[in-house]
Design brief:
The protein folds into two domains: 5-16 and 85-216, HAD superfamily/HAD-like (Rossmann fold, 3-Layer(aba) Sandwich), CATH 3.40.50.1000; 18-82. 43% of the residues lie in helices and 11% in strands. The chain has helices at residues 18-30, 38-42, 49-56, 62-79, 90-99, 112-122, 145-152, 169-177, 192-197, 207-212, and strands at residues 5-8, 103-107, 130-132, 162-166, 181-185, 202-204. Helix 1 crosses helix 4 (62-79) and helix 3 crosses helix 4.
Length: 221
């Protein structure tokens, strides 16, 4: 079946931001006297606040979780957002998919403000048909909400006719729960085993590698 739409994650997939998010979360946890190994934090990157914080601090109530997320967001925006760079060929990948007649959605656990910044950073406003962020849904990845909402914004595209591209196991899990197949990228620094075990049907090094092999990839077949 021809793929009519591609739902792209952003952080770690199109832009090189995961390490910055780890440091921002480290600072947020430190603000309440909590310390976690950076690898432990990295292993949760890809989730939104509602999923990430309870995994590491399960006893916090919802209000405290939200406050931690706000601290993380403020640290990231103040110290790191302007330093984030696109991965090589990220825009070209979206342009190729768009030129192939596929609809493009940016579907991220990031905030609306971060998404707006990345649309300009990647220079893809003319290529993107729809967007979804953590602000649009009740639950972020690995819940299916973000991808389900993304699909709902497209016309005449079934779950079987869409494909997710992401860098974390949570992208793969969320896509699968929404009935959408997913391709993983190693650019987010998750292991192949983590991506395969979460349901990836293909794995590529990064956006440039996926672009190079697009015709033979699950997206282009």
């Amino acid at each position: 079946m021809r793929i009519k739409a591609v739902l792209f994650d952003i952080d770690g997939t199109l832009v090189d931001s995961n390490d910055f998010h780890v440091i921002a979360w480290e600072a947020a946890f430190a603000s309440v006297g909590e310390t976690f190994d950076r690898q432990m934090i990295h292993d949760q990157i890809g989730k939104g606040t509602d999923m990430l914080v309870p995994t590491l601090l399960p006893d916090l109530d919802e209000a405290a979780q939200k406050r931690l997320g706000e601290v993380h967001g403020a640290v990231f925006k103040t110290h790191f957002l302007e330093a984030v760079k696109p991965f090589a060929q990220a825009r070209a990948l979206l342009a190729h998919a768009h030129g192939s007649g596929q609809q493009i959605v940016l579907a991220s656990s990031a905030s609306e403000a971060e998404l707006d910044h990345y649309l300009d950073l990647l220079d893809v406003r003319d290529l993107v048909d729809a967007t979804t962020t953590s602000d649009d849904v009740k639950h972020t990845k690995p819940a299916p909400d973000i991808f389900a909402e993304a699909l709902a914004k497209l016309s005449n595209v079934s779950a079987e006719e869409a494909m997710v591209v992401g860098d974390t196991p949570y992208d793969m899990q969320a896509a699968n729960k929404a009935g959408i197949a997913a391709v993983g990228l190693r650019s987010g620094k998750f292991s192949d085993d983590a991506l395969w075990n979460a349901g990836a049907i293909g794995i590529y090094d990064d956006a440039a590698a996926l672009l190079e092999g697009y015709a033979d990839s699950p997206l282009g077949r």
